[in-house]
């Protein structure tokens, strides 16, 4: 355990988990109140484990993702912060939901809200926060000699939105470069390809439990410890990760496609020019079907 | 003599107040040399170790008396053609800088003497070989290495197989010298006594402690936080010596409580008196005041009182400072009142949110308030007939069985009364009379509870506690305070007022009224709580219920989410014990070893698995690993650990000797890495997973050390000396 420095965990919470009309809720077999109670218990446990543990929580839905809690452990010179983050988190979540309800009532739209989660925005904001916290520790020191890596745990109940493929993958690669571990717990009937790849690429854990009755056990078993401690535990996964990419043109998940040799954009069908970088492709001879990642011929482009 | 090895050197005076110099324990003699620039010149003293018959340490003083047998000394001196000394026994007293220095020097001295006694020939012959290369067997090597004599080392190696294996690998393999190896063992023993590492594992008895018992290197137990240690304070009445130790915290407290002392301190320390003198005066002054108080209490005559009172020499500085502080206070009338107003008597109630947990939280609160507990049980028994969960909350509220927060609120009210006087008492009483149900008085910053209660639909500050709040749920239950019971009079009402006001310690104690013990069957209470927890959908409160598909919620979407949030009280989270099957499934999700074990056991009696009783308890995977494999693993891990320790100590490799040593260790670590990887590769099945798990820490250590060594090699430019 990185006792001296504590651990840094950022939680991404999909508000769909709290909605009783969530399509996935019925299949989970557990009321949203249980999920919320277990989540709050987990935040309490994580904070109590080490007084230097830092916990940030983002909550969001299809169109937004907000920071609802930031606990900086004992380093923060704040006497008003409670030992237990559950109370503060609950209050802020209630405020957020009330605000969103008011906004939805003020601007009613005829189209039903998409059942997705703003994963790319949440990941980006969380990574920015992690970057800031890593470089501005209240106790001084720029994070030198850290034993554990910061972690980002996504608790998601919505399916992937293929429109977010590019920003999500960019965020994942950023996390990989910044040595941030991306963990995921998906409480949905289908796997999340994005989060599978995120966990695979950053050395994190991905779970889609069959029943959420054991959610708290899952959280406490695998996510309450810091990454260096987890390295010493008997934890490993053999995931069948879905590495299929989404095309940049229609956001379809494809197995075979066309790749721009200049900017590596992926397309599901041949085109005259790359819609991303504008490179003009030669017709006929150069262009051909290839697996994602293989190059398709392009003309010019240096 | 010229080649004898110096084992330890300490600064020491030849007798208390004598000339300053250095005491040197060498392999065959004890020498004292005067310091070069010493004011009192002294003559060099040399005592052969064989002539030393005894040494006595002064208790709590850094003094030692060395007794020397004159006969042997004369013999030695005759060999050196020196005039014989006079008396039959000589004593030399040395004063060290500290007791620790004295003990360190004497520890080495006793060990060397013991080594000389057990094997004088060997000691004389090879005393200078310490620090050299490893010898062929444990019987060889220097007389003293790492503070251990040769027989001690042999004894330790004979008793501890692990240590022996380690010695053979590191010293026998030429990686470390005897001095390095035993130095490491000694430092480890010093850090971990009495649980001596390694030496206690092999033979069943603590070999290390046996070996160390004779000399007994004393363990230093951390640094003291004592700021001042005052002695020789004489109690005037009993002529006793008073020893006072002042820690920084105590000093801070004295300054905070007594501004006059702080003022005197600032005026006099350090320019007029030393800190120690100041505190001595302070203690004497306090004793003087105390003895005066006692004399007054005992009603002594003035003459007898004067005789019994402790002399207050030096206490004038405190009297002057007190007078000055009083004068300043008198010059600013209202300063004390302003200061009092600045004090916030209220407690931060956010911190006590956790007390409102159900289950253990309730039990905890009940232990602190036994009479409330009996009321609770009585109420639970009566409510058992009505099956009305909402009624429970109402009844609890009516009886004034507050949640633990109320205790803090009571303390706040108490503080308010203490600071603001009887007006506040009247105000609180008036509040309680006018609205006995509820609102918290000013000064109570129970914002979280108020907010939570507001969300739950109940008035802020309503008593009723966690059980009532949990049972009440989002909508109903808000009328829980209506039952009030303000007119119910009698003992419950009085008790309620007493608890709510928190002023019972300021009032006359109520006459004891003992109720008969009427605790219902606790099982029924817990079963009812369980029913409340799980039977939400049927329950009228329905706080934790899930109607399924959102049918019972006020609305879908965000409205439903808001309802879900309102139904959960963060201060009294209901996290029931998890279903064992679900907990096991969660555990096995990504733990290969546990999963393999479970699968192995599920395979049936064909395996070596023990039968599992009720899904609990699994066999120890180490039980199926062959003992020789376990022993090999143990030796490997110990060797890696020890080699890594020496490796990191030899960094930075800024001298040729360090580079050579680090290179040898890196080579050994590389070999160990191959062994560990081979072990990992060979491991199969459940045992394989177990072995891989065991080898994770040494593998991490190995890789860390080797990566660092590569960096060192690159930094120093190429392969250092000795690296092959």
From TrEMBL, chain A:
Entry's Gene Ontology molecular function annotations: zinc ion binding
A cellular component annotation (GO) from this entry: transcription factor TFIIH holo complex
Protein keywords: DNA damage, DNA repair, Metal-binding, Nucleus, Transcription, Transcription regulation, Zinc, Zinc-finger
Keyword DNA repair: yes
One Pfam entry name: Tfb4
Parts forming coiled coils: none
Quaternary structure (record): Component of the 7-subunit TFIIH core complex composed of XPB, XPD, TFB1/GTF2H1, GTF2H2/P44, TFB4/GTF2H3, TFB2/GTF2H4 and TFB5/GTF2H5, which is active in NER. The core complex associates with the 3-subunit CDK-activating kinase (CAK) module composed of CYCH1/cyclin H1, CDKD and MAT1/At4g30820 to form the 10-subunit holoenzyme (holo-TFIIH) active in transcription.
Protein name: General transcription and DNA repair factor IIH subunit TFB4
Naturally occurring in which organism (per UniProt): Pleodorina starrii
Origin organism lineage: Eukaryota, Viridiplantae, Chlorophyta, core chlorophytes, Chlorophyceae
Gene symbol of the encoding locus: PLEST004616
Automatic annotation (TrEMBL), chain B:
PROSITE patterns assigned to the protein according to its UniProt record, in alphabetical order: BSD
Biological processes annotated in GO: DNA-templated transcription; nucleotide-excision repair
Keywords: Coiled coil
GO cellular component: transcription factor TFIIH core complex
Annotated BSD domain residues: 238-290
Xref: InterPro entries: BSD_dom, BSD_dom_sf, PH-like_dom_sf, Tfb1/GTF2H1
Coiled-coil annotated spans: 662-689
Comp. bias regions, Basic and acidic residues: 367-378
Sequence ranges of Low complexity compositional bias: 434-481
Stretches the record annotates as Disordered: 124-148, 367-386, 434-517, 532-552, 599-625
Biased composition (Gly residues): 128-140, 536-552
Protein name: BSD domain-containing protein
Organism for this UniProt entry: Pleodorina starrii
